[in-house]
């Protein structure tokens, strides 16, 4: 064979196997409307994978007393739009952002948003869903009160707008720096707004929101020259007017500062669409302009839209699935939602803002923030380790960098745009790092990572770690939600021990392996539930296993939901509950209980009930897989079908709870593939059953792992047999190395349960006893 022919064949082989299978265009299978209704809290607007810009329509930015349903700024059931802002969380249960709100206006301009129930009372406009086009990387809608066609797309740091105005009407763009998602009086501490000699508009806004003292700066440019402009400070009701004609010079009146700023930019009667490009920066106005200069060259909206779609095609091409159209839409939308966060939070020059509020510079990596770690450590980050491990390297370097800039010397808890909110519990950056390291992700300083993990797990003031380290549990008379904190700390400790062991640090592994057994201090054999103890060692009384919410023993859950949270030692939990049969019966009781959903009306996040199981919130997410550990994987298979059928749908209200920055969606992706990371920090996945007939995971270096199932239909819901690379697989778990090596996992499905497959003690996923301490 000649060298030329060999090279051609090698090239053809590479082309056939590489994730450049994106040419199939999986972006077209995404429906960003899923989750925009009900409690999903997703946004429908334009963004790119892990991008800094989330350019999306806002139907409301109500005050903090009514903000829960508008955590992403948009609710599908609303009939009017406030405008389009550039920053959003996807699926959060709390919120902020909604920065740099703009609204195109044709005709008369009103300066206040107005009442949604009174059309024409303000600048907001009605719209129809029939006019919306919602795609990965693109959003369009017609503002019916103005007759303006609005189109949005995005790059990593730039939001691109195109507005087509009706002929004969004056065109305006309103920029409002007052509104904010989860708003309340005095949230805006200060804002600035200025018009430069070249027509660039820039400014900054500082808020005391969820992350106090957050500053975001921006810069925008227009494709058409302004005919006039007006800058307003509604705090004092002062108006400044400036004009930029031939020979006109910029004056101080072209800049404004205050706490209630907006600007109106006029363009006359346009004969062609107005394009707008907007850059943001968490650091400075100058950096925002530099971002615009570097990432926002030219005026070609259609080219930018094509680039956004191509970015999604590349990211989604890591998995090819064969499934009916609706199932394919659900799968790729879930994968899309799992790749929205964490978000880039770094300027083009490498500058980013740290939790100390100071400016730092990333050297050799991209800095990411927006870390809902209590949620995403469970499945969203393990999914990235499996499918996009190169991203995980930058994610971990970002966590380490944030720790180094922390005034407290610990890893992020719930951070965005570099700043800490201290929301939720645990030190769950630890399992994110440990899971990646144990599964072979490198490219970061492991010694620094381990140092950061130990620092986070021993910082006494955080969440009463002082008492936890002294007593082995968090006393409820010293710290709220003591049972949940004890359980979550113990798991985090176990994951830390796994990384230390993998690094050869036996001393650290022994210390934290011992702490991993602290879950036993929360176990009450008398009631059969996990409970909080007082500092004197007694359990708090009175005890109600159905009680949930702040002030109880638990975080966003009750005893029925949290008593299963020992992912690092399921075997120990099974023993504590009396063995396999009693454990399985107790799981059945959880799922089959008769529970009135109004029981949790005071706890907004507990949704998606199947008995006491609450799929709409994260503490329940591993529970259906626990049957595997007790030798009853056929029951896991049945419960998964029950959950998939009832908790997900390809419609706006198709998520049973907050997507929580991709965690709900990542659960769907893993479950559809047939495996789930019950215990991040181990190299094992519990096997469930697939919900797509075939999935090819393109894992780089020419390796593909294919998962297939047949016959796959409602008449055959159970696993009859499994083969790995053609050989019978009797165990109900798969190792990470077996997946990334490439190969094929095949499920033979059947109508009745196979009660023998995976039932042997040696066939079950790992428990703490197998890993040791």
Radius of gyration: 27 Å
CATH C-level name of the largest domain:
Mainly Alpha
Uncertain spans, ≥5 residues at pLDDT below 50? Answer: 1-23, 242-252
Total individual domains: 2
- Return the CATH topology of the largest domain: Glycosyl hydrolase family fold
Query: How many strand units?
Result: 38
Rounded average pLDDT: 93
| Lateral strand order in the biggest sheet | 6-7-8-9-18-13-12-11-16
Structural class: alpha+beta
CATH homologous group name of the largest domain? alpha-1,2-mannosidases domains
Note the gap between the termini: 56 Å
What fraction of the residues are assigned to beta strands by DSSP?
Answer: 15-25%
What global shape is seen? Answer: globular
Largest sheet, if any? 9 strands, antiparallel
Q: What's this, in brief?
A:
The chain is an alpha+beta fold and 773 residues long.
What are the SSEs and their pairings?
Elements: H1 3-17, E1 56-58, E2 80-81, E3 83-85, E4 101-106, E5 125-126, E6 133-135, E7 138-143, E8 148-154, E9 158-164, E10 171-176, E11 188-195, E12 201-208, E13 212-222, E14 228-233, E15 238-242, E16 255-258, E17 261-268, E18 274-281, H2 285-295, H3 301-316, E19 319-322, H4 325-337, E20 343-344, E21 351-353, E22 359-361, E23 368-369, E24 371-372, H5 373-376, H6 380-387, H7 389-404, E25 414-416, E26 419-420, H8 429-438, H9 446-457, H10 465-471, H11 482-502, H12 506-515, E27 523-524, E28 529-530, H13 559-562, H14 570-576, H15 580-592, E29 609-610, E30 613-614, H16 633-647, H17 663-673, E31 675-676, E32 684-687, E33 694-698, E34 704-710, E35 718-724, E36 727-728, E37 733-735, H18 736-740, E38 743-750, H19 768-771
Parallel strand pairs: 34-38
Antiparallel strand pairs: 1-3, 2-5, 4-10, 6-7, 7-8, 8-9, 9-18, 10-17, 11-12, 11-16, 12-13, 13-18, 14-15, 14-17, 19-33, 20-23, 21-22, 24-25, 25-26, 27-28, 29-30, 31-32, 32-37, 33-34, 35-36, 35-38
GO biological process, one term: glycoprotein catabolic process
Signal peptide: 1-22
GO molecular function: carbohydrate binding; peptide-N4-(N-acetyl-beta-glucosaminyl)asparagine amidase activity
């Amino acid at each position: 064979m000649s060298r030329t022919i060999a090279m051609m064949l090698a090239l053809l082989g590479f082309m056939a196997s590489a994730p450049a299978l994106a040419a199939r265009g999986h972006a077209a299978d995404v429906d960003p409307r899923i989750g925009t209704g009900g409690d999903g809290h997703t946004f429908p607007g334009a963004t790119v994978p892990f991008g800094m810009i989330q350019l999306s329509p806002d139907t409301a930015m109500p005050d903090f007393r009514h903000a829960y349903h508008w955590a992403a700024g948009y609710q599908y059931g609303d009939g009017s739009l406030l405008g389009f802002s550039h920053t959003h969380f996807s699926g959060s249960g709390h919120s902020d952002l909604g920065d740099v709100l703009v609204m195109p206006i044709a005709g008369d301009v009103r300066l206040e948003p107005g009442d949604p129930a009174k059309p024409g009372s303000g600048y907001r406009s009605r719209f129809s869903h029939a006019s919306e086009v919602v795609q990965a990387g693109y959003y369009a809608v017609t503002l019916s009160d103005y007759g303006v066609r609005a189109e949005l797309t995005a790059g990593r740091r730039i939001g691109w707008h195109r507005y087509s105005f009706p002929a004969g009407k004056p065109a305006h763009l309103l920029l409002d720096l007052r509104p904010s998602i989860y708003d309340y009086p005095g949230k805006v501490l200060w804002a600035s707004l200025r018009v430069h000699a070249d027509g660039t508009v820039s400014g900054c806004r500082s808020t005391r929101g969820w992350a106090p003292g957050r500053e975001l700066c921006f810069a925008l440019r227009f494709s058409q020259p302004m005919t006039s402009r007006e800058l307003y400070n509604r705090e004092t009701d002062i108006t400044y007017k400036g004009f930029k004609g031939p020979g006109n010079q910029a004056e101080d009146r072209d800049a404004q500062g205050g706490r209630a700023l907006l600007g109106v930019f006029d363009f006359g009667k346009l004969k062609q669409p107005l394009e707008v490009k907007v850059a943001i920066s968490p650091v400075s106005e100058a950096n925002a302009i530099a971002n615009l200069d570097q990432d926002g060259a030219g005026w070609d909206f259609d080219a930018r839209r094509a680039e956004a779609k191509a970015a999604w095609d590349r990211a989604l091409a890591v998995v090819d699935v064969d499934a009916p159209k609706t199932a394919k839409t659900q799968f790729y939308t879930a994968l899309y939602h799992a790749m929205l966060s964490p978000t880039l939070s770094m300027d083009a020059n490498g500058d980013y803002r740290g939790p100390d509020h100071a400016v730092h510079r990333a050297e050799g990596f991209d800095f990411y923030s927006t870390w809902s770690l209590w949620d995403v450590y469970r499945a969203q980050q393990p999914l990235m380790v499996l499918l996009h491990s190169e991203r995980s390297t930058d994610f971990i370097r970002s966590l380490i960098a944030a720790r180094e800039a922390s005034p407290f010397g610990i890893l992020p808890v719930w951070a965005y745009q570099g700043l800490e909110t201290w929301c939720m519990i645990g030190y769950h950056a630890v399992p994110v790092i440990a899971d990646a390291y144990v599964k072979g992700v490198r490219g970061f300083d492991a010694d620094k990572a381990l140092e950061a993990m130990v620092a986070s797990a021993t910082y006494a003031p955080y969440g009463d770690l002082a008492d936890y380290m002294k007593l082995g549990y968090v006393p409820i008379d010293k710290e709220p939600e003591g049972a949940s904190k004890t359980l979550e700390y113990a798991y985090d400790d176990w994951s830390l021990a796994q990384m230390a062991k993998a690094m050869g640090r036996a001393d650290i592994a022994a210390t934290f392996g011992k702490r991993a057994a602290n879950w036993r201090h929360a176990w009450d054999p008398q009631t059969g539930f996990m409970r909080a103890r007082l500092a004197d060692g007694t359990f708090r009384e009175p005890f109600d296993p159905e009680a949930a919410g702040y002030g109880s023993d638990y975080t966003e859950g009750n005893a029925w939901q949290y008593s299963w949270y020992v992912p690092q030692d399921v075997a120990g939990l099974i023993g504590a509950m009396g063995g396999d049969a009693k454990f399985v019966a107790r799981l059945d009781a959880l799922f089959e209980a008769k529970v009135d959903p109004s029981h949790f009306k005071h706890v907004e996040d507990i949704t998606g009930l199947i008995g006491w199981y609450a799929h709409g919130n994260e503490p329940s997410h591993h529970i259906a897989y626990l049957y595997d550990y007790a030798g009853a994987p056929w029951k896991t298979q049945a419960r998964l079908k029950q959950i998939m059928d009832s908790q997900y749908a390809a419609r706006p209200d198709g998520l049973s709870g907050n997507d929580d920055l991709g965690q709900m969606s990542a659960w769907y992706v893993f479950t559809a593939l047939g495996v789930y990371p019950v215990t991040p920090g181990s190299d094992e996945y519990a096997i469930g059953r697939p919900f797509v007939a075939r999935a090819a995971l393109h894992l780089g270096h020419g390796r593909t792992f294919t998962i297939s199932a047949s016959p796959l239909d409602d008449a055959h819901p159970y696993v009859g047999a499994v083969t790995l690379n053609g050989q019978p697989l009797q165990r109900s778990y798969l190792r990470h190395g077996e997946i990334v090596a490439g190969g094929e996992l095949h499920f033979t499905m059947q109508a009745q349960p196979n009660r023998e497959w995976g039932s042997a003690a040696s066939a079950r996923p790992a428990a703490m006893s197998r890993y040791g301490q």
